[in-house]
Amino acid sequence: MVYLTRKAEFSAAHYYHNPEFTADENARIFGKCNNPNGHGHNYTLEVTVKGTVDPKSGFVVDLKKLKDIMNREVLDVLDHRFLNKEVPEFFTRIPTTENIAIAIWQRLAPKLKMAELHRVRVYETSDLFVDFYGEA
Amino acid sequence: MKAHLTRRYMFSASHRLHSDEMSEEQNRSVYGKCNNPYGHGHNYMVEITVSGRVDERTGMVCNLVDLDGFVQQHVLERYDHQNLNLIQEFTEQVPTTENLCIAIYEIVQRGFGKAHLEKVRIEETMMNSFEYVGEA
Q: Which of B21, B37, B61, B101 could disulfide-link to B132, CB 3.0 to 4.6 Å?
């Protein structure tokens, strides 16, 4: 089994707000992230797939195909968007780094035919990242 | 769904690697420059990884404010700009980064109840890093 990781970057705006909380609760729990006008990050995405090395190609996965899927399924949808307002998952779920990692996994996993998705890592900043392994 | 969240912190401290159980010569041979009598320092980078179910109401494994507050109070204030050899846990064991990893793991494991501690990873310099995941 060999693990292969592909990186990508996207930039997006978001804010944290739960309509079931009072204004005070939202402000207390989410702090600055609750500003309804939003703020943004340069996110770094790492997608790790695993598989056996194909004896003919020497590849775990064709990187070009993986890159195309990441572009089409993830980056075209998230890059330079206001996540709460433009990305359907986040109409109802708060676009925390945790939920972004889960959403990216859910977008990629059904589209990856050639290798198995192992991990989605999303850096919100260089000192904060979330790993999602598809665990229930 | 379960996700892993990793946060990076920095602190700067001095130390000297020296064991009273070895002769002067053995100490010099084992620890090399790190045995110089007046000590030296590092900028330590600490990564703390916690895991748990993503709370549907907040979208979070745990609130970063809680994790940051705990680490600030119990780890960074304990070690930042200190001489590690003078801190209680290193009066009887050598302040190697291995032992520092274990000490920080135990502080977080004992005191932080808002998520499950997975791992403590420390970069002593860009060239070396250490991880502790607890005893199996």
A: B101
